[in-house]
Amino acid sequence: MIPLRTFHIHIKGIVQGVGFRPFIYKLFISHKLKGWVNNTTDGVHIQFNTTKEFSNNILHIIREKSPKLAVITSIFLEEVSFSKYSDFKIIQSTFHERTTQLLTPDYAMCENCSKELNAKENKRYQYPFITCTNCGPRFSIIRSLPYDRITTTMDNFVMCDSCNKEYENPMDRRYFSQTNSCPECAIELSLYENGELQGNFTDLDYIVKQWQKGKIVAIKGIGGYILTCDATNADVINRLRKLKNRPTKPLALLYHDIYELAEDVEMGIGEKIELEEPSSPIVLLNIKKDRMTPIALDEIAPNLNHIGVMMPYTPLYKLLLDKFKKPIVATSGNISNSTIIYQDKKAIKELSKIADLILLNNRQIVVPQDDSVVCYSFIKYYRTVIRRSRGLAPSYINPDLILPKSSVLAMGSMLKSSFTLLNHQNIYISQYLGNTENFEAENNYKNTLSHFEDLFQPKLDIVLIDKHPNYFTTIFGKEIADRKNIRSIEIQHHKAHFFAVLGENALFNSKDKILGVVWDGTGLGDDGNIWGGEFFTYQQGKTERIHHVDEFPFILGDKMPKEPRISAFVMTSHMENNKIVKDKFSKTEWQIYQTLVNKTPLKSTSIGRLFDAVASIILNVDMQTYEGEAAMQLESAAHRYFRTNNFTKFYSYLKSNDIPKNFVEYLIKNIISDIGKGYEKDFIAAKFHISLAHYISIVAGQIQAKKVTFSGGVFQNQLLIELLISFMDDDFELYFHKELPPNDENISFGQLMYYIYNQD
Questions:
Q1: Reduced to 3 states, what is the DSSP secondary structure of residue 608?
Q2: Of the four, 28, 95, 320, 591, which is 20 to 30 A from 271 by CA?
Q3: Do 62 and 8 touch, CB atoms closer than 8 A?
Q4: Taking Cα atoms as reference points, which of 219, 244, 228, 463 lies closest to residue 331?
Q5: Contact, 584 vs 570, CB < 8 A?
Q6: Alpha carbon distance 697, 689 (integer Å)
């Protein structure tokens, strides 16, 4: 008989809160192995008796059959001093000095819980907080590591005998399910209405009746409160917009089920799968002309062809939508441009000014999160993450990156802010934290960073900041560095964008010259100007800015991005017979702005402002109430043209592979000429998009780069991505972002990549 030895397995990755210990328990019991498994602050540990040969076999089985939600980043087997075990058990979690555990995101309700929710014989029938080891809140409720009930906000809820038996039964789906509860030991709802708080609220039919009456209902979800109303009632949607101070920005919808949704939108298999993923994000989908549901489209998404939709990812949402049987508006619970409200007292104080009633629950939220947003291009079905938050944040796993052992904090940008922490060779990228020009967003940023510091206790070596001296993240980053007596390093905004997409695609070891196209709205350049239409090359650690669109005057600071007509003005101010633009201004405005254009030393190469100018000229979008509004309407106009027409360079304003001396001026002159010829607006918008894709392909050909990467907020434009793939895919290797948004949410990750891999 071969003598038994003792082996230890250490597993790292997303392995807590995903049913990993119950999986190990069942696996080892089935193979009659004896020992123990536990959680620690650096992953999952297993110690057991077996032979040398079978120790390797069990390692292979763990890799192959681990839980669906688990992501193993490393698994290490070693023989240790012999200990004899008489059984196999899950033992109490332990705390290591070094916290290296990746954080598990929040998950949508799983299929099994969904079935139990509507099974009359089940004890959790119609229970709004049903969960198991495969679903429910994780990141949003965790106070400390490792992930156990006592380290979450579920610690306040004492399980009943029945739930406790499930929790302790290795064969039960709720074995060690930290969010386990039922109607006997319930998370309780309460209702705030007319200044009174009603506890132990259970009448969900009442909420449905309020929707039917045209009421606005605030509901506490996983990451914070959402504001809801009937999506077919134009009057209540307009009232919600007015109270929320959100005049035109599109509103997300919650649909009853995937079949109802399919009647209203164009949905491919990728989009359907995305909607049903455990992350359950908002997915942007094009609306059918002959949709079945009478949603108030003009009020929900003014001047756009698409809507953002999601499935009811919590049992509470599912119960309510099953009763209502129509889509509802589901927008973040806040005043526009503020952060999502997640604390109950603040919800009562602030949201009662908007909502007619507020549905609360007594499970606390530690980390607020907006819903993630994903979209797919409409022909190639290329996936783009627009907002990375609930269900996707915060752990980032890329095994192809070589990471140093130092601890680094990258502060990110101002708009669409996030921070990135490198700690013990793990990367954590915070959820979307909003526009830190806003005081509440600043506080949310600080609180989230403080929470990460409490969880991981990093001993920071360096802080990375944007080059713009007035960004909150830059100022705060310098304060942190000074307080800890460590260095801070400035990294230029667009270089961070470039390195973010290089990092996501692990291109740093490529010997080829790589072209980086970075197009966005605003970023301080190395020369003190406002960049945004940049072309970089990267080769063997060296980065160079090799091209950019033509400079134009930048005036009036933040007023310029908010008024697309001003971008149109500065790009046409020296043109003759410019009546289309001149009619947008009073005589006084025209004179003042002309003086500013002639005197300002500040220049810009921003493609974001070019989109604004063209939207103003073609579509008369002269003011915008949210970032990117003009560009989104321009994309929608072009998309309408391509619904019935093919992609072709024939309609590019560039008629050869030579770039005009002043590309911006050349484009706008041709656009104004087409308007004068009476061409349809949608056709001109399409020609503009075609010309931009053609322009990039010409630059790539001229510098002879076979690998081309794309980053920056402009590449949220799915039509532009489709055109680039159509025009360039045969001759170039194209690389886009994968798990990170192309917008400024990726800046913090790009700062980290630049610090690690740049050799200039």
A1: helix
A2: 320
A3: no
A4: 228
A5: no
A6: 13
Rounded Cα–Cα distance for residues 698 and 309 (Å):
37
d(CA 660, CA 658): 6
Q: Which residues does 342 contact at the CB level (< 8 Å), separation at least 6? A: 220, 223, 224, 225, 365, 368
**484-503: pLDDT as tens digits:** 999 999 999 999 999 999 99
> How many Å apart are CA 31 and CA 51, to the nearest integer?
12
- Say if residues 536 and 545 touch (Cβ distance below 8 Å): yes
Tens-place pLDDT, residues 106-163: 999 999 999 999 999 999 999 999 999 999 999 999 999 988 999 999 999 999 999 9
Burial class (CB in 10 A: 0-12, 13-18, 19+), 58: buried
Contact 277, 242 (CB under 8 A): no
Q: What pTM was estimated for this model as a whole? A: 0.95
Both tokens assigned to 427: 């990367």
Record the tokens describing residue 314, joined without a space: 């919590």
Q: Which residues make beta-bridge pairs with 490?
A: 465
pLDDT digits (tens, 9 = 90+) for 564-610: 999 999 999 888 878 999 999 999 999 999 999 999 999 999 999 99
Judging by beta carbons within 10 Å of its beta carbon (0-12, 13-18, 19+), is residue 441 exposed, middle or buried?
buried
pLDDT tens-digit profile of 314-330? 999 999 999 999 999 99
Whether residue 184 contacts residue 163, with contact meaning beta carbons closer than 8 Å, is answered with: yes
| Structural domains in the chain plus CATH codes | 5-90 (3.30.70.100), 111-185 (no CATH), 189-374 (3.90.870.10), 394-491 (3.30.420.360), 552-738 (3.30.420.40)
Report d(CA 613, CA 565) in Å as an integer.
6
Candidates 377, 214, 211; CA nearest to 283 is 377
DSSP string, 354-408: T-SEEEEESS--SS--PBPEEEE-TTT--EEEEE--BTT-SEE--TT----SS-E
**Are 115 and 90 a contacting pair, CB within 8 Å?**
no
* 252-266 mean pLDDT: 95
Q: Is the Cα torsion angle 234, 238, 240, 244 positive or negative in sign?
A: positive
End-to-end CA distance of the chain: 62
Q: How many residues are given for the chain?
A: 760
